[in-house]
Specification:
The structure is a homodimer.
Chain A (H helix, E strand, L loop, with lengths): L9 H10 L4 E4 L2 H8 L4 H5 L6 E5 L7 E5 L3 H7 L6 E4 L14 H10 L3 E2 L2 H11 L6 E4 L6 H10 L4 E4 L1 H7 L5 H24 L6 H14 L3 E9 L20 E10 L2 E2 L2 E7 L4 H20 L6 H14 L11 E3 L6 E4 L13 E5 L2 E3 L3 E3 L2 E7 L2 E4 L8 E3 L2
Parallel strand pairs in A: 1-6, 3-4, 4-5, 6-7, 11-19
Antiparallel strand pairs in A: 1-2, 2-3, 8-9, 9-10, 9-11, 12-13, 12-14, 14-17, 15-16, 17-18
Helix pairs in contact in A: 1-8, 4-5, 6-7, 9-10, 11-12
Organism (chains A, B): Flavimaribacter sediminis
InterPro entries (chains A, B): Creatin/AminoP/Spt16_N (IPR029149), Creatinase/aminopeptidase-like (IPR036005), Creatinase_N (IPR000587), Pept_M24 (IPR000994), Peptidase_M24B (IPR050659)
Pfam family, one (chains A, B): Peptidase_M24
């Protein structure tokens, strides 16, 4: 089985583990299992509770291992993750295992089924840690995806093991995007843009938010992405920060706020555009222009070495100088990747510094009761000498003709 | 603000809490926050890590409370959950709060923003527990959605509090479905069926799995459901238990396996149907008939009082007597609700007993290397005097004409 090439920044993974004196990492949250091991375990993504791990010895000084249920071995055979060693747990039945002349895809599953069946995820993990000679080592365990019961059994089975939480540490590992990650993020972004375009093209007075959402998500799934964030709000509902499409109908003069983005090959989009049904009021035009100035200005200043907290101040200043003198925000953006909120935090007090290879969302949302919600949000790739937009669309207010 | 009527089985919630001597429950996993409090906190559902809770004193002997970030108060205003008391945490900015004559939706948000801003989720939860006079009480905490850090801070803040894990306990509370839950499950089920119908209608030699998946998910989103489970596998890929649509093209004689279901108003579908492109082989026809017999037979025996382990044996026997004498399975189904795997477990050794109001998936999957994957899976509502199918479609093998 020829495994896929890693698409993650595994050098950063090893460097951060080494720097912190860890002998190994155990990834447990869905996004981290996929990021560290190249393995997407379906049940792990669509439910809470199922356990799947990647055991990753620092710099792969011993063998890395995927730990997953027998019923998900097919996904290993099909995905060919770069971590190709697998420990399986749990009973599951397949027939025809000794048929001669099986298809390579069948054979890959049979080969995986030949491995020992562990009673549970923790027993398989303990076996991996023991085989690596790390029973009394120091291990970073992503605490978000492991149940407290599993954590307790791990501590009991390996009392000399030093365990430290790793969820925030793995977030730092994911900060810099590889070219393949940027490609996926760009595609996720462009699919979200196409979905907005299709929605606004169909917009008309009397259309409900749900009717528009059907067109939005239809465009997303027709482009092989999965709906995740689908905030669409008309008029007074545009002020709802997380507006879920309702039966509210579009009226003349209404703001149409999109804060949206699906998942393409596991990678997220998160963008915002604003439409107006017919003629926008002067207040909407002016305030939108100020918010857009904030994002426009970000493109002028984003470069490696800029502090995220300075970017925050620059964007806030640009908005305040151009029509919203009292503009206040907790942040004006964040990284994006396999999770919708990667590092950096573009916020006051952030210690993050922009680096080439980051992909960031820069946004200037504004919610005013009695007026509506306005927002501009772009996905931007930080490059060696500045930045490039991942967007295909401009940032103008989109006027929908009646 | 007129809150929505509860749609959950809150009598069961209180009865199970009382029986186990708990003074209160803290729901933390997304499905449990929605189930117990009627509140759907978007970021909680689409990411891992964000915290949202429902504090539920047993039998509401003091006030229940939603604990969520300030940035999600809009969802409270819009959803009007039956738990209407809210404790918010975190900084978020809205303008226009003192404009006169606000729309009721705006005003509802302003009213929520008037509440105290807690620094974090744990501080808000501690305040709720203290106000209920339960600082030294016994509380069930759903351990899946609370970070270990939050759990540690809770224990530190309230050292006299007795905390026991509740995730499995809340699963037992969700077992019996109310009429509104059954309605949503039926609709989710019928949307999945319509998506299969549309997919098979478009099926033709040379079509790829991805092309079919686009039609499948498009039908789902056009019916206001969200894609979740989208296993579609052709030919050798039908044996992949979790087949994710690929560029593999449909060939004459191929099995087309669907194991699918989205989410409608938070409630899940999980059904399976099998198509064949052109003339199926005798082996496929015969083995499918045996598997179908298993589910057919389930309809004859499902009634309140039947042990789930007996249902397992009955279904297994029916399959074994009708063409697959060596049929083996770990289970032949499970409950379904706001999670895809609710109780009961239809498995050997299960202590669950069928009760009126349960909604169950009965399934007879069969994976044979060299042949393919075959599966029948229906959603069935257990009624006072037997059962009713939630399905609109029959269980026959679907022959696609070339």
């Amino acid at each position: 089985m020829q495994e896929q090439e890693p698409i993650s920044d595994l050098q950063a993974v090893d460097a951060i583990l080494s720097k912190n004196g860890f002998d190994a990492l155990v990834a447990t949250a869905p996004e981290n299992v996929t990021y560290i091991g190249g393995f997407w375990a379906m049940t792990h993504w669509i439910r809470r509770g199922p356990q799947a791990y990647v055991f990753w010895p620092t710099a792969r000084r011993s063998e890395a291992s995927i730990i997953t249920t027998t019923s998900t071995l097919d996904l290993v055979a099909d995905q060919k993750p770069w971590v190709s060693n697998v420990r399986r747990f749990g009973y599951f039945v397949f027939e025809g295992m000794d048929r001669p002349g099986l298809d390579p895809l069948d054979q890959a599953q049979v080969d995986l089924l030949m491995g020992e069946e562990f009673p549970g995820a923790v027993e398989a993990l303990v076996d991996a840690i023991r085989e690596a000679g790390l029973s009394s080592g120091k291990i970073a365990v992503d605490e978000i995806g492991m149940t407290p019961q599993a954590m307790a059994r791990l501590r009991e089975a390996l009392p000399d093991l030093t365990i430290e939480p790793a969820f925030e540490l793995v977030r730092t590992m994911r900060t810099i995007k590889t070219p393949e990650e940027v490609r996926r993020l760009r595609r996720a972004c462009n699919i979200a843009e196409a979905s907005i375009d299709a929605s606004l093209k169909a917009a008309h007075v009397g259309m409900t938010e749900k009717e528009m959402a059907r067109i939005f998500h239809r465009t997303t799934v027709e482009n092989d992405a999965t709906p995740v964030l689908g905030v669409i709000g008309f008029g007074v509902r545009s002020t709802l920060t997380n507006s879920q499409p309702s039966d509210a109908a579009l009226k003349e003069g209404d703001i149409i706020r999109f804060d949206v983005g699906g998942r393409y090959m596991h990678y997220r989009a998160d963008i915002s555009r604003i439409g107006v049904m017919g003629e926008p009021s002067r207040e909407i035009v002016d305030k939108y222009a100020a918010l857009k100035n904030g994002v426009d200005h970000a493109y002028n200043v984003i470069r490696p070495g800029l502090k995220a907290s300075d970017l925050f101040e620059q964007v806030m200043d640009a908005v305040r100088k151009s029509g919203l003198p009292d503009y206040k925000r907790n942040h004006v953006g964040h990284g994006i990747g396999i999770d919708g909120y990667d590092l950096p935090n573009i916020a006051p007090g952030s210690s993050d510094v922009l680096q080439a290879g980051m992909v960031i969302c820069v946004e200037t949302p504004y919610y005013e009761f009695g007026l509506g919600g306005l927002q501009v949000e772009d996905m931007i790739h930080v490059t060696e000498d500045g930045c490039e937009s991942l967007m295909k669309s401009d940032r103008e207010l989109r006027i929908v003709s009646a």
